[in-house]
Amino acid sequence: MLRAVNLRAIQRWWAAGGGGVRRGEDAAGQSHGLFLRAMRAAVRLNLNFLKKFVLAIAGVFFYCEFLHYYVVLAQCGWPALDPSAADPSVNDSGTPLHAMVLADTHLLGRRNGHWLDKLRREWQMHRAFQTTVTLHQPDVFIFLGDLFDEGKWCQPEEYVEYVARFHQLFAVPEDADVLVAVGNHDIGFHYSVNPYLVSRFQRSFDVGPVKLVQIAGVTFVIINSMAMEGDDCFLCRPAKNKIKVISRQLRCARGDKETCKYWHSPILQQYSQPVVLQHYPLHRDSDAVCDEPDEAPPDLKHVRFRERWECLSRDATEMLLEELSPRLVLSGHTHHGCHVTHPLPRGSPAHEYTVPSFSWRNKRSPTFSMLTISSNNYAIYKCHMPQEVTVLVVYGITTLLIIMWIVRLKLRSTGVLYTKVSKHLD
Q1: What stretch of H or E contains 214?
Q2: Per-residue pLDDT for 115 more than 70?
């Protein structure tokens, strides 16, 4: 457009007599030089516009795809521990841990979704995760299952690429601890699980059907939700036996000397009421009991859960609560936030937080949890991630402003651009 405007300015100059140039060989040479100067002036004007246009586009892209994440996530912070909520019967381990808790990343494979959707969602998750790492520097990273969307279907070579991509997108500092629970999209629901799918995930993320971990005096029990079916399959029986062993080891750590004769665990340096990490929520009828800003939408909130599909069975839930007596349960799977409590056989009730999906593909306004935890106390905070609608609005407003700018230049082109070209010719 601007090139055409500049050429019209040159044509006006030529029609006006070429600045007094006369015919003849000398006049022709002078006219040729003036014409080249006019062309150079037009090129300079076009380059000036192009630079401003590129800078405007690059600036808004940099803000929306990079800086905006810092602006939003800088507003989050680690919650402070309330001394009055500490368990006086448990020794304080000292400096509390800071844990970033997320669920249901659902990295796409080769089957589902469009490549552009895959690229967009993975960039959003990568940018939100790495911005949190930079700003808040978590000590522990907790993934609550469904890392992959197609883990149960992919072939071995594709799975290797899947795992490598996960570690690239969610790279963590070398001194950080990573705790991973397995989800149904990683290995399949109970009816479709096989030893090969289970073993390759366990090898990739150093996790078993049930795993006991203690970090800085804080005890975690990581559970494979598909192993809580309640039958005697190759996965369920070892998981149930392991839970009973951990229950005895916890009693030993608490000071039961008789139990310690047979069930002492070198993993437990001290006793702390455990934190259960799993993909499925504990048994509840539906999300109707949830009252969170990131809860399920009204059309899903009252849909009744199916045991062993949307949540653990009632029997499995009662077994876990009785054997482990957890103070905190962290789960995912539903893609929506929830906070409920479960009565324990003894002591205060267990609090369960269901963490929504970390992917904008599954949740319009995703969140993750920031957990401050010690051996006898904890506090949890919900961090809201950038909303996609905000980014789209910024892009839309910028596009409108650029169009208005170009129209303004078009309207001014008859006088101002002609004057600028004429100045270069004088």
Answers
A1: strand 210-215
A2: yes
CB half-sphere exposure, 77, CA atoms < 13 A: 4
Element (H, E) at 346: none
Q: Calculate the alpha carbon distances from 46 to 41, 50, 156, 330 in Å.
A: 9, 6, 54, 58
The radius of gyration of the chain's CA atoms, rounded to the nearest angstrom, is: 31
pLDDT at 28: 55
The pair of three-digit structure tokens given for residue 74, joined into one six-digit string: 């800088």
Which residue, 236, 382, 200, is CA-closest to 312? 236
Q: What is the dihedral of CA 103, 107, 112, 115, to 10 degrees?
A: 140
31-79, pLDDT tens digit by residue?
Answer: 556 656 656 655 565 677 778 788 888 988 999 999 999 999 999 999 9
Please give the C-alpha separations between residue 17 and each of 11, 13, 32, 215, in angstroms, as whole numbers. 10, 7, 13, 87
Can you give the pLDDT at residue 408? 81
pTM for this predicted structure: 0.85
Q: What is the dihedral of CA 113, 102, 386, 131, to 10 degrees?
A: -110
| Amino acid (one-letter) located at 206 | D
Hey, which bits of 346-405 come out as E strands? 350-354, 367-373, 378-384
Tens of pLDDT along 348-377?
999 999 999 999 999 988 999 999 999 999
DSSP 279-327: SSPPS-S-GGG---TT---HHHHTSPPPBTTTB--HHHHHHHHHHH--S
Which residue's structure tokens are 């909520």?
85
Nearest of 262, 334, 330, 344 to residue 297 by alpha carbon: 334
Distance, in Å, from the CA atom of 86 to the CA atom of 381, rounded to the nearest integer, reads 17
How many CA atoms does the CB half-sphere of 50 hold within 13 Å? 9
Q: Residue 336 in contact with residue 289, Cβ under 8 Å?
A: no
Amino acid letter, 301: K
Q: What is the maximum span of the chain, computed from C-alpha positions, in angstroms?
A: 118
Stated length of the chain: 426
| Of the candidates 169, 131, 132, 130, the residue with the CA atom closest to the CA atom of residue 148 | 169
Nearest CA to 102 out of 294, 383, 372 is that of 383
- Residue 356, H or E segment: none
